[in-house]
């Protein structure tokens, strides 16, 4: 029995054609007969319900061409949703959704492609992977890892750029080519890693740690040339995200996927839309810098010229003033004023000295008038008794008491003989004055 069954619309094979299972090197079957045989076998499979996660969803002319991925492995299938069926399925189905679909295998003879036509589709719930990513994204946002204030600024001109990307990838070529076009002397240290699959996370972590430990590396670029969300899952891994957040070297994310960007874009210090954009954002353009320097030099020269012109004009204005054209009159005038001020100062000082002399003489006269010496000069004396007290009445002095008499010049010691108002009788024969014995040195 042959495996070939002609389908409607196909040209029947010639009668002497060789069946695929009966083919030999001398009598091979044709590609068309082989594909037709495969299609006939596939068409007998019937419709099956399959569960998976939508990893791509492209609409063309009302039809949808998508891919479903197995939740537990990397297995995928291509599916088609014709416009007539699309109107009967939920309109919000998109990338990341977890769905079940009724599919029927369809093998295209002309292209040799196997795909599945969808006759029904419905949501099972949000895709497990997308749901985990959204929970992780919310947790990291709550921890502040997306905050703008924690983003590190990029250096103006990095001396050495670390590049983590796939080997011989378009992303690597775009970064290197555009960076060298902008700054020919730029230097790179490139580490090649897997950009998807199981090796992506550990290799990217190792490369990031190696570049972070290099003191010459000023900025790190993680680049990939885009892809569907399924292939970008490695750049949403929590280990990579936290390692980038903890890095001391600024990290630029250049994954190149605008619609469903990985979490790395949110944590990185700078998100570039493409690897080319990353090169432009990290390395300055040498032509632009030359132009900027020329503009700054022109502005500085113009500013300096204006300042010099302004200062020269001010100097000419100052020189044109009369005081600077002929300064002798003002010097003469100031000299005369100085002479008058000096004369007034000398006269004022002399008057103040004379006034002070007169005032001093007055004080001296007052002091002399009040001094006890002036009283003694008029013939008065001061008598002190034996206790040193001033004698003001004769009643305080006893007979034969020693007295001290202070005169204008010198002092006398005397002995009291008695009260002068009531003297004791003295014999006349004595031949002495009645007062002779009152005072005796």
Provide the fold topology:
Layout: H1 31-43, E1 47-60, E2 63-69, E3 76-81, H2 83-86, E4 97-108, E5 113-126, H3 128-142, E6 161-165, H4 170-182, E7 188-192, H5 200-212, E8 219-223, H6 238-246, E9 251-254, H7 263-267, E10 270-271, H8 275-282, H9 286-319, H10 322-325, H11 328-370, H12 372-377, E11 382-384, E12 402-406, E13 411-415
Parallel strand pairs: 3-5, 6-7, 6-8, 8-9, 9-10
Antiparallel strand pairs: 1-2, 1-4, 2-3, 4-5, 11-12, 12-13
Which terms would index this structure?
single chain; alpha/beta; OB fold (Dihydrolipoamide Acetyltransferase, E2P); Rossmann fold; 5-stranded mixed beta barrel; 5-stranded parallel sheet; 12 helices; 13 strands; 38% helix; disordered C terminus
């Amino acid at each position: 029995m042959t495996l070939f069954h002609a389908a409607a619309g196909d040209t029947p094979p010639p009668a002497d054609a060789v069946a695929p299972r009966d083919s030999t090197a001398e009598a091979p079957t044709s590609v068309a007969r082989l594909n037709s045989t495969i299609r006939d076998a596939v068409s007998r499979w019937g419709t099956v319900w399959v569960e998976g996660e939508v990893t791509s969803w492209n609409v063309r002319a009302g039809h949808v061409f998508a891919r479903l991925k197995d939740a537990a492995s990397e297995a995928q299938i291509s599916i088609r949703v014709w416009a007539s069926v699309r109107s009967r399925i939920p309109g919000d189905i998109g990338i990341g959704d977890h769905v079940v679909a009724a599919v029927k295998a369809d093998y295209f003879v002309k292209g040799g492609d196997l795909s599945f036509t969808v006759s029904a589709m419905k949501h099972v719930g949000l895709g497990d992977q997308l749901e985990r990513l959204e929970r992780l994204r919310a947790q990291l946002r709550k921890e502040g890892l997306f905050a703008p204030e924690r983003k590190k600024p990029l250096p103006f001109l990095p001396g050495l750029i670390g590049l983590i990307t796939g080997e011989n990838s378009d992303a690597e070529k775009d970064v290197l080519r555009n960076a060298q076009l902008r700054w020919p002397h730029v230097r790179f240290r490139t580490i090649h890693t897997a950009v998807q699959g199981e090796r992506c996370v550990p290799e990217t972590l190792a490369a990031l740690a190696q570049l972070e430990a290099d003191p010459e590396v000023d900025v790190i670029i993680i680049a990939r040339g885009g892809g569907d969300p399924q292939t970008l899952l490695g750049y949403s891994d929590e280990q990579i995200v936290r390692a980038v957040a903890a890095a001391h070297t600024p990290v630029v994310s250049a994954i190149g996927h605008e619609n469903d960007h990985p979490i790395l874009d949110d944590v990185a210090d700078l998100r570039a839309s493409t690897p080319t954009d990353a090169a432009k954002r990290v390395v300055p353009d040498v032509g632009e810098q030359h132009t900027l320097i020329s503009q700054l030099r022109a502005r500085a020269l113009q500013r300096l010229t204006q300042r010099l012109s302004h200062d020269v004009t001010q100097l000419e204005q100052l020189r044109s003033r009369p005081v600077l054209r002929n300064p002798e009159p003002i010097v003469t005038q100031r000299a005369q004023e100085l002479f008058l001020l000096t004369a007034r100062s000398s006269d004022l000082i002399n008057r103040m000295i004379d006034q002070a002399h007169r005032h001093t003489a007055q004080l001296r006269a007052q002091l002399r008038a009040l001094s006890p010496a002036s009283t003694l000069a008029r013939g008065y004396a001061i008598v002190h008794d034996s206790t040193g007290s001033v004698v003001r009445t004769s009643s305080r002095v006893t007979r034969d008491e020693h007295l001290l008499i202070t005169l204008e010049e010198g002092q006398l010691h005397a002995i009291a003989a008695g009260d002068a108002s009531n003297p004791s009788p003295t014999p006349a024969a004595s031949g002495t004055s009645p007062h002779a014995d009152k005072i005796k040195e």
